Amino acid sequence: MSYKREYLSRKTLAKDLVNKQVSGVCSGIAKHYEVPRLLVRVAALFALFSMPVVTVVAYFVAAALMPTRY
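Below the sequence we write its predicted structure tokens.
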């Protein structure tokens, strides 16, 4: 019986400081879910224009609470 290595390791959601623009939240989310960074950033901009207060609060909370990955 063999197991794929990807099932044995746990991925954690963390800010990505290598590819960051502001604080690394969007690039960390993109890396965690394995989607393009541009897609996450465009979705964040769309959310910012449609729900500005909620998006700004959520972004600052995520920036404060997410651990940092180098």
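The chain has a mean pLDDT of 86.
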